[in-house]
Design brief:
CATH class: Alpha Beta
CATH architecture: Alpha-Beta Barrel
Distance between the termini: 24 Å
Helix content: 40-55%
Structural class: alpha/beta
Order of helices and strands: HHHEHHEHEHEHHEHEHEHEH
CATH topology: TIM Barrel
Number of helices: 13
Strand content: 5-15%
Number of domains: 1
Radius of gyration: 19 Å
CATH superfamily: Aldolase class I
Number of strands: 8
Oligomer: single chain
Length: 336
């Protein structure tokens, strides 16, 4: 392998930092507006054409690509949601969250220390993650409310939220009851998400819609709108456990629902695609979508996150290729 070459990533090449980043007030929600919900539609053919054009409309190469990928790292919710999770695995994940890229690569790119947007775990592992991240400023997100199916009794789901918040979770990823969407029972969906939001207290709430199980893009659009009316701080595509998870058409529908809600209420709501986003190219496509549909402000971690576990490894490999001209083996970028 040839020696590493120092590459300076220009600050103007991509959204590495936003100088005047106004804070985002929490979404207080609003009364359920069934007329607005009923009027919400989705043109599937137009949505698919728009998404097909994304990759060809923007070409991010060389230093600019490295800058975009460095930004993508700050947007990752580094996740472990396996049945065999252990405290040791969670601590290793948190170590990776604190130092997601090898120091020699950051030095070659002219970058100081960086970290991911958050660490996401089951509520049983919240205390371990909070202790491992103490003093870093990296928040812990907990999946809750009977994740991934969301079919536990309501009292159990609310208790899960309260337990995770008490353990130190700063963000709660809730799952909705898909049946409310499939039956068109928007009042039930609104009441459910509103109750979850109340249980979250000061913790930010991400509402997982499990879009792969909602049937149609119109259902996705309406569920997105109702979740925001109920006070969701973020809307999220998937649990990562469905047969179909984050896709660009679904993400476009949700991004436009966020845009419409912001235009009507003045409140910004975040967006989190999750499940199946595993390559640097995927990350760039979603970042371009957010930039074009919602604007530069939605490329900060308080309004955009990737739910991912394997994405970081591919981004690291792309950054090493940018520095050295060679792709490295995956073992050079271990998760922990």
């Amino acid at each position: 392998m040839k020696p590493a070459t120092r590459h300076s990533v220009p600050a103007t090449a991509a959204p590495v930092a936003l100088a005047l980043c106004d804070p985002v007030a929490r979404n207080p929600g609003m009364a359920l507006d069934l007329r607005w919900v009923a009027a919400t539609q989705a043109n599937t053919n137009a949505i698919e054409r728009r998404c097909a054009s994304l990759a060809g409309r923007r070409s991010v190469k060389k230093d600019a690509q490295a800058a975009w990928l460095l930004k993508a790292i700050a947007l990752i919710d580094l996740t472990t949601l396996s049945g065999d999770d252990t405290p040791g695995r969670v601590r290793r994940l948190c170590a990776k969250a604190r130092a997601p890229v090898r120091a020699d690569l950051l030095a070659a790119l002219g970058m100081g220390p960086i970290h991911v947007g958050a660490v996401c775990v089951y509520h049983e592992m919240v205390a371990t993650a909070v202790a491992a991240l103490a003093g870093t400023g990296i928040p812990v997100a907990a999946v809750s409310t009977g994740f991934p199916a969301g079919l536990s009794p309501m009292a159990t789901r609310l208790a899960e939220i309260e337990t995770s918040v008490a353990a130190g979770a700063a963000e709660i990823d809730i799952v909705i009851s898909r049946r409310h969407v499939l039956l068109g029972d928007w009042q039930a969906l609104y009441d459910e998400v509103r109750a979850f939001r109340a249980a979250c207290g000061a913790a930010h709430m991400k509402a997982i819609l499990a879009t792969g199980e909602l049937g149609t893009l119109r259902n996705v659009a309406r569920a997105s709108l109702v979740a925001m009316m109920a006070g969701a701080d973020f809307i999220k595509t998937s649990t990562g456990k469905e047969p179909v998870n984050a896709t660009l058409p679904v993400s476009l529908v949700m991004a436009r629902a966020i845009r419409d809600y912001h235009a009507a209420t003045g409140h910004r709501v975040g967006f989190k695609p999750a499940g199946g986003i595993s390559t640097a190219k995927d990350a760039l496509n979603w970042m371009v979508l957010m930039r074009e549909e919602l604007g530069r402000r939605w490329l900060e971690p308080d309004l955009f996150r990737f739910g991912a576990s394997s994405l970081l490894g591919d981004i690291e490999r792309q950054l090493e290729h940018h520095v050295t001209g060679h792709y490295s083996a995956k073992y050079r970028h271990p998760m922990g």
